[in-house]
Task: structure prediction
Amino acid sequence: MTPGRRSSTFTRLLRHGFTDPSAAEGMLDSPDLAPIRNDPVLLDALGATADPDLALAGLVRLLEAQPSPAARRELLGTLISAKPLRDRLLGVLGASAALGDHLARHAGDWRALVMYEPRDLHPGVAEFERGLAGAADPVALRVAYRRCLLSIAARDVCGTTDVAQTAAELADLATATLRAALALAEAAAPEDAAQCRLAVIAMGKCGGHELNYVSDVDVIFVGEAEGGADEGKALRAATRLASHMMRICSETTVEGSIWPVDANLRPEGRNGPLVRTLSSHLAYYQRWAKTWEFQALLKARPVAGDPELGAQYTEALGPLVWQAAERENFVADVQKMRRRVVENIPVAEVERELKLGPGGLRDVEFAVQLLQLVHGRADASLRSGTTLDALAALAAGGYVGRSDAAQLEEAYRFLRSMEHRIQLYRLRRTHLVPEAEEDQRRLGRSLGLRADPVAELNREWKRHAAVVRRLHEKIFYRPLLDAVAQLAPGEARLSPEAARERLVALGYADPAAALRHLEALASGVSRKAAIQRTLLPVLLGWFADSADPDAGLLNFRKVSDALGNTPWYLRLLRDEGAAAENLARVLSAGRLAPDLLLRAPEAVALLGDGDGDGLAPRPRSHLEQEILAAVGRASGAEQAVTAARGVRRRELFRTAAADIVGSYGTETQPAEADRGALVDRVGAAVSDLTAATLSGTLRAVVREHWSENLPTRFAVIGMGRFGGHELGYGSDADVIFVHEPCDGVDEREAGDAANKVVAEMRRLLQVPSADPPLLIDADLRPEGKSGPMVRSLKSYEAYYRRWSLVWESQALLRAEPVAGDEDLGRRFTELIDPLRYPEHGLGEEAVREIRRLKARMETERLPRGADPKLHTKIGPGGLSDVEWTVQLLQLRHGWEVPGLRTTRTREALAAAREAGLLSAEDAVTLDEAWVLATRVRNAVMLVRGRAGDTFPSDIRELAAVGRYLGYGPGHAGDMLDAYRRTTRKARAVVDELFYGA
Result:
């Protein structure tokens, strides 16, 4: 050959798909292959395999392993003359290095692929039992198992069987293997076998007749005493047999292992006995089983041991499976289990996870099982343990749209085929798509993707995963729309009863009303109806994830009726990724946010993701600028304040929506982990909004009556939670008013003007309208309700100098100017600073007085019948406890610790910790209790639409509060326990720091 030129064999090898033609050329030149090296049939057959290099290397090893020249000639002759053997043998060698290793160790097993009678094409349990019959020990059983596996793999890679048939054959082989292993265990301990009856129930993929090449084989054991044997002794004997059977399959020998046998799906999991009697199984499932355990029983199938006992097991437990959908929070429990599976995948593996990741096999299986459990009680045709059979039955019955079912089936078959071929290569249990290009190339070629295997594989994989992601939840909801819409002739639809079942399972309390809403939203041929038909399957899922799906759907209908023909609204929902989910969360989280939205539905535009800050709180300066501009355009005070209240309503909605979305989380953004930050954002946003509204109202009143020339300077001082930037949704605005006559103005005239300003502000902010009122509470003023509503700065000075009480000094800790004359507000602050931060702190008598006041408040102000341990304001460890403790530290040490001179509770608490006035642990305890109590109050207002200081008694409202606080369905009790635990710890700190106990 001319130097530098490649041989014709090298070129032909490249053309046939070899990636290392030089090595292949060397192997073809080996003496063992000399008789057929130039046979074109051989190269063509190698080129048709998933990995020609691997196939050729395996063939060379197999030839080298033959015991004699005659055996090699037999193999080569059969290989060239018998196309079926050639395709099967080389196909297996090119797809599975592990089976190539087996053939190299057991050089005669290639003959298992020679005979292919019609009865061999689809073997069942009986055929596999014959294949394993000669195995007298665990090592021999492994060899026989691999020989049977060889024939399954050959049919698979040659396309004789499809992926579903291959999975069924693998399950049948597992059944035969379990029987053989149990027989070995019984032969080793005949005295144990004589004492008991033992049935092996296959679960999971084995039970569903859809096993992988390498998978844990999930089982449950049922045992009974044989004859008159003692039950305890019989169960111990059955346990020994079951354990031995598991070891026979699972332990590694010189021939490797078969697969792990996993019994963790049994009652109580690893903590429960390995073998139970049938009555014990039944008692457990009737009393203790969780929803997922009934879901697992869908695939239960007796496979080995006592067939009569196995049949009794399925007959006894079968009815319980079909009652699972009636359990409270059934759908939520199943979906939560699915989310937990995804959350437990290592971050680095999520994108390669074929089984458990988003758009993976488990999504299809969970969706199908969910629908089976909902509708299987009434329709026995849905009770198959095999995913594809169940999906076909769901489509035939109208429970899933036929087009959706066809797409899901195609995706599932492709993904399962990928999983099979990945595992077949090394016979290792894995569901990760390999990263190496050579592995992806072999995988792609094994699936028939030959032009550009790597690119085509990734394209097809991503396409099918996207289909599953899009459909796996939607198929639960879309048939509900079909049930109320006009369908093409011949298309099956959900019956009214099936639609009702599904809605009840989703948590709808009034399924009839829900169907009416769906019909109104999805019927017709308008663009609005078309877009809503597309959106509703997804929205229904989000509504179902809330505590009140009925309210979510009803509120969506109301918003749709108000805005449905507005082009920007339809575009927003269609095009803005976050808008639809944010809207669903807001509409189903309680009454407050939907009420605010429905008073001005155009505020839905705030929910779009846009540049990402649609729900971010606006700075106070921007709010004041907008409100003052609206006041300036108005023709009178009432119109001006109406405009200001309209801005307040919109911004309250923005704040509430951001709070709900941050607390619930979305599909792309997890819930806010820092609950304190959520509380701070709400408090600051509502406080800024209240201050801006008061500023606008003050401007409107002055302009209306004095043409902006008020005869006295006037300032509004925020008090309480308002001054502390800690207002909640249901808080009144605690304030005091201060004025100072302008130069040359009579004190009386100035006082009358100031009082008129206050009266007009309070009136205008409470005028009945579509906007929520803003209630002004001035009870913290000197002398309380008995004192004048507004005082001059001189009057405050005189009062505080002569009459001030310790509780007033405490109240002034939260005083901060919020509206009106800034200079007057600053001078008022300078006036009160010596009172609230007294030099050298409080005297002991003043401390005792504060403690007496606090103790009296705890006994006198708690509402009759209220549970003190659940009262967020006055209850032990609640807001009052934390705030009075912090305020006592401020009164005592504010004069010497600058950080304590703040109106904000959490800032003061942090400053006290830094100053060493309390331990870091105690500070965290108090902070957590204060944040939790504040969030509960906010949640109650969001859910009920009216303020409250304790948890709701209504079950659905309580669940909604729990959902806001991060507790899933059915965990309201956990929420109350956590609240009591948190506040109990806080109260212990309060007793020590405040009461000195």
